[in-house]
Amino acid sequence: MDLLYLFIFAVSAFFTILVVALIGYFTVKFRRRNPDDVGADIHGSLALELGWTFIPFVLSMVMFGWGASLFFRLATPPANAMEVFVVGKQWMWKVQHPEGVREINELHVPTGRPVRITLGSEDVLHDFSLPAFRVKMDAVPGKLTTMWFEATKVGTYHIFCAEYCGTKHSGMIGQVIVMTPQDYEVWLSGGRSTGTAVENGERLFTDLACVTCHKPDSTGRGPSLLGVYGSTVKLTDGRNVVADENYLRESIMNSQAKVVAGYQGIMPTFQGMVTEENLMQLIAYIKTLKPAAPEAKK
Amino acid sequence: MATETAPARQSYLDAPYGLAAWLLTKDHKRIAMLYLISITVFFAIGGLFALGIRIELLTPKGDFVAADTYNKLFTMHGVVMIFFFLIPSIPATLGNFLIPIMCGTKDLAFPRINLLSWYLYVIGGTLAIAAVATGGLDTGWTFYTPYSTQASQTSVTMAAMAAFIAGFSSILTGFNFIVTIHRMRAPGLTWFRLPLFVWAQYATSLVMILGTPVIAITLLLVMAERTLHFPIFDPKIGGDPVLFQHLFWFYSHPAVYIMILPGMGVVSELVAAVSRKQIFGYAFVAFSSLAIAILGFLVWGHHLFVSSQSIYAGLVFSIITMLVAVPSAVKTFNWAATMYKGSVTWESPTYWVIGFMGLFLIGGLTGLFLATLGLDIHLTDTYFVVAHFHYIMVGGAIMAFLGGIHFWWPKMTGRMYPESLAKASAILVFSGFNMTFFPQFLLGYMGMPRRYHSYPDEFQVLNIASTFGATILGLGYGLCLVYLLWSLKRGAIAPANPWGAKGLEWEKTQSPPTTFNFEEDVIVTEPAYNYAGSGKVHHG
Predict the structure, then answer these.
(1) Range of the domain at A119
(2) What strands lie across the sheet with A155-161, from one edge to the other?
(3) Which residues of B touch A143 (CB under 8 A)?
């Protein structure tokens, strides 16, 4: 990424110097010597016009391609990434590790392991910005977003809120604390765990009575959720959607929006009953629900 | 020339005056002057807000003003400078004054609508001031939802109404220019004989009439959600906050071109005049204005790369944004090439033009970093963005605006200003500007977010440098204001054509022009900037 910076910087510096030098040279060399002088009768040159259309075009396309490939890498977290849930609210960051450890305005991570962050917001827009790792992502109320990074060096790095969110926007800051994997394990075991995200999600699934309709087999009033995450779901209006995190979130908060074909839209909405963190726990649990192995089906 | 020897006729300034005559005038030149006075007032107000911001940022702790006050300062700085200074700046002053003259006609197509647009601007501006007085505004000039519709405790509705009304002033001005340029050109004045300033204003007017209605609707929706809880943007009641960003930037990105395109038009005029040479590649410069206006409508999503917009949409917006670099580069090279074998003067307008080119180059090229998807993720919402858009909108647009004001001041007021002070002011503004905003590129690269009232200690040195530069920048603007005001009474009387420039405004009107501009009907027989064709130029 920093190589791309250098490339664009070099191109920019070259053109700045070129144009400044040309202007400097022309304004001095062709300065007006007699008050009545006029310039030469030159109207243009097609070759030059095509040249300075084509060259910037090619250079900008190189920048685009390079930047786009980088962007795709940043938008696709590796499969082996550890997952951390982060919720922004005015004006703090709430972090929960998969093992259940929670922290506020701090994020402990080990070196050498990609970290995938699932990001939500309880109120207005925020943005989880980690300048040392060259990544940031908006926390958007009403949906979940993701980002990822991998730390390579032990140290302490800034967390900033980069999307303006009101009075203490500039106080919505914190630290990423990067530790060796061994230190990280020690830190995790010393943390105040209140159950893992999946365990909490499972408990909520029962407490909120989701389980009474979403039975493991197809006998419930709602569709079975086994293997639903990542699958393609057919809706009553004939559309197909991929059941990603945002689909699950929407179905919990606004259950009538996308009803699965073959079922009635009778599920109550949980808007206002579950927090963003609860949602993330529920989704973490639903993600673990795998269909029974084929032989068991027989 | 005839105007030297003939006894000067009564100029538009000497025509019946008194408050009523000015406030009910239908003369495009007087309306331009009304605009010039009012935008200068708003520029001073916006500048005071900026002063507050720069003092606060001298120290890492938020100790000069409270956090809420700081948030209001940067919000109102943005709202005032963008909606009430930059957008009307060149079109409503120089455009109003020059377009009818450059088209060889007596006035704009709809003089009464022109006056109406100034009144709408004043009503909008008054409401904006009222919003400042009754609690201010703390949403950022971007009015992002759901903060603006459900969280902010400030006068959001009144401020949105102010921008809403000012928008109509912009629509009417654009509409008036388009009709005038189509229908009122003098005999012989074909499209390709028009000065490039007129082409640039034409492109700008298209953006004004096509883009402004969208922001008007968007602001209405914000007001409706805020006051009536009409669910549009707030997800708690079923809305979508990202929808707001799409609607907002659909206008507000093209709005950047409303600010810079007229500046490019001014620079095209000035480069030709200070070099006394036909502009290099006239058609390419003219059509690049239109290309920028059209492409400008297709790039709004580059403000949303980290907003949860689809990554494929991000790809499309990035590649189209890159294309904007092409017509911008074409213009820059053509301006430089115009000076080749020219007869380049070192009078004060040259200083402003060269200053514009330096700042516009940096502003434009740093746009490449932001258009590049992978890099924007790091740079967006940091001071890099702040520096970039100030280079374009302040460095580019205000440098061009002041260059144009200096170039046409003798025509507009009939007076000359002191040359040496004008050069000093251009140098102060140029160097003060760079000292203010160049450090902000570095701050952004280091990760300092925008809109921060307090910040980590490591960013202090560059912030002090920036505040120091802003002081020099302020002195430069202040000096300019002082000698221009001074020149109104004490400046030397300007001849009809002090620069020895081509163009209807210099060759066919006196300084300042009479109310109906021309003594006789204009017939155009030559292309614009026909310096070589006329041999030696005539002074005086």
Answers:
(1) 82-190
(2) A106-110, A174-179, A155-161, A126-130, A135-139
(3) 235, 308
Is B361 close to A168, i.e. CB distance below 8 A?
A: no
Q: Which residue of B has its CA nearest to A175?
A: B456
CA B47 to the chain's CA centroid: 15
- Domain assignments of chain B as residue spans, ordered by start: 25-534
Domain count, chain A: 2
What architecture (CATH level 2) is domain B25-534? Up-down Bundle (1.20)
Question: If you measure CA to CA, which chain A residue comes closest to B75?
Answer: A164
Mutation choice for A interface testing from B268, B270, B285, B308 by most A CBs within 10 A: B308
Q: Is residue A67 part of a domain?
A: no
The parts of chain B modelled with pLDDT lower than 50 are 1-6, 540
Residue A73 lies in a domain: no
| Cβ separation A131–B365 shorter than 8 A | no
B536 interface with A at CB cutoff 8 Å: yes
Best of A170, A258, A270, A276 to mutate (most B CBs within 10 Å, chain B) = A170
Closest Cβ opposite residue A158 in set B357, B456, B539: B456
- ipTM exceeds 0.95: no
A134/A234 same-domain check: no
What is the mean predicted confidence (pLDDT) over A11-16? 90
Cβ distance A125 to B241 less than 8 Å, yes or no, reads yes
Residue A147 bridge partners (DSSP): A117
CB of B412 within 8 A of CB of B32?
yes
pLDDT of residue B1: 39
Q: At what angle do helices B460-490 and B28-56 cross, to 10 degrees?
A: 150
For B82, the token pair is 């963008």
CA gyration radius, chain B = 23
Q: Which two tokens stand for residue B488?
A: 């109104």
The pLDDT score that the predictor gives to residue B188 is 94
Burial-class residue B2 by CB neighbours within 10 Å (0-12, 13-18, 19+): exposed
What's the confidence (pLDDT) of residue A252? 85
Cα B214 to Cα A255: distance, rounded to the nearest angstrom: 32
Q: Tens of pLDDT along A201-234? A: 888 888 888 888 888 777 778 888 888 888 888 8
Residue A148 to chain B, least CA–CA distance (Å): 12
